[in-house]
Amino acid sequence: MTRLRVAASLAALLLTSGLPAQAHPPTQAQMDRDLLEVTIPQLESYYATHRYTVEQVTQWYLDRIAKYDPRYKAVITVDAAAALARAKAEDAAPTHKGPLYGVPIVLKSNTSIKGLVTNDGWKGFMIPGHELIAPQDATVAAHLRAAGAIILGQTNMPDFAASDTNKSTAGGRTGNAYDVRFSPGGSSGGTVTAVTANFALLGTGTDTANSIRMPSGTSSVVGILPTRGLVSIAGIAPLDWLLDNTGPIARDVTSAAIALGVMAGEDPLDFRTKGSKTKAQPGPYTNYLKPGALQGKRLGVPAFILSAPPGAQAGVSPGGAVGRSIYLRPETRAVFLKALDGLRAAGATIVIEDDLLPDSFQKLIRAITTRPYRREGAELFFKHFGPAQYQSVDAYATAVGTPLPALFTAIPPANAPARAGFAGGGGPQRTLETDPEAEATFFAPQRAALAAYNEALDRYHLDGFVYPALQMPSNDETIPQPDGRPSSGPHSNTGWVNNIGVPAVVVPAGFYANGLPFGMEMSARPWKDGDLLGWAYAFEQKTHLRQPPVLVDQPRPAED
Questions:
Q1: Which residue among 98, 115, 326, 361 is the one 20 to 30 A from 133 at the CA level?
Q2: Of 163, 168, 183, 187, which is the active-site residue?
Q3: Which of 112, 168, 183, 211 is catalytic?
Q4: CA 14 to chain CA centroid, nearest Å
Q5: Which residues contact 210 (CB under 8 A, 6 or more apart)?
Q6: Poorest-confidence range of 10-24, 115-129, 456-470?
Q7: What is the pTM of this model?
């Protein structure tokens, strides 16, 4: 009798909410079969035919996080109560609106979600009584909510997004979903692990020098770095606001393209988005997704990426890893050249020339200086998205009793020795809008580097460039590293993309002999995001190289 009353009550609830009663609740096996690797269009079709409710789907993802994430440590905050409440509200709504209706997502933990702690990977923003609780959503979070997405929680990331691996003082080390001993890359390693492991349908990443694209390459997912200015970064804790960007991460190009359309838009809190509506290709971006999009296209391989010899070093990296080796490893070169065959099979011509973006291009990139303006980015973030007790860099020090690290503010501690590079002090801090040297320091060098990029495209009649998303495979972080130091993750040679603000996308492009994924990156001219996604889609549909990881639900060893 009790079961009959429960069933009757459930049927009544479904009827009053406008949903038809399900004759039989879905089994776990059925949901696993339907929802593993599901795309946005597939999920929306399940909702349209009442195969599942939003609450059922949301609970399925939450259960996967609870079962597997203790081992992988991808999700640092699970907001289960809010996610289920939002799911129930969507189920009860009389109409289903929005391109992301009922789509469970995760956001990187440097992205403000109203009421949650924007920990930015750093334990200093989680001090009891001094938490950085977001007073409002970041612009992209607001856009995703308005489109119907269900925010499950926040993903782990390295402190301040300043590392090529994904170990943080806030959440520990995230393990690669394909082998937990290995790095997923950083700083969006939490999101790529969550998405590839089917803890969420899609997620967001941020990227200052490779941090969407490099981790996407380690984890067989699609990662989009939009043209800078297409998507607002307001409400995202900055590493270097003049290089920072944000974009979607998904398992397939179609879902990523739908999410990018939702995230894009002008925002008065981000001056780089002004006029983007007229500059960008018209949406929706799914209009560009055609199997023949690569037919007749010409893609060049940057010479400086292929030519870096053993022993070549990147100097000072965005993560502060001084002297890291960035030469293209032989095993990476081999799998990249094989991936190029997939592009050719899809109709593209590949151009490899010694003078196509040679080493001299890197000199132009290095001339772009952003360090004097990094504090301004921090101040803007705190002003609009800091908690009431500290809405400036100095107010944090007053409230907490200790200053923010130089890695976040670019202001070294008093009496600290001078230190060159991204992670150090970088000299006096100035305001971009009022600095008389801003033209010579930032804007003019950026235009010169972008002109060189476009000139190379014109000279060889190219549509874009193609190159490895990483210079090397992911590394095992549970064993001593070759240099004797703690793991700083795998590295890429792709930070130049951020410096000139062009769009790029990473797609699954194969696997190494040890079973770890390889990702291939393509870039295009500014504001050609739609064309770029078309190429990614054509390659995806021609090759179908993504394979999901096989997860383990056992706890990780204590040392890790």
A1: 98
A2: 187
A3: 211
A4: 37
A5: 164, 318, 469, 492, 494, 495
A6: 10-24
A7: 0.93
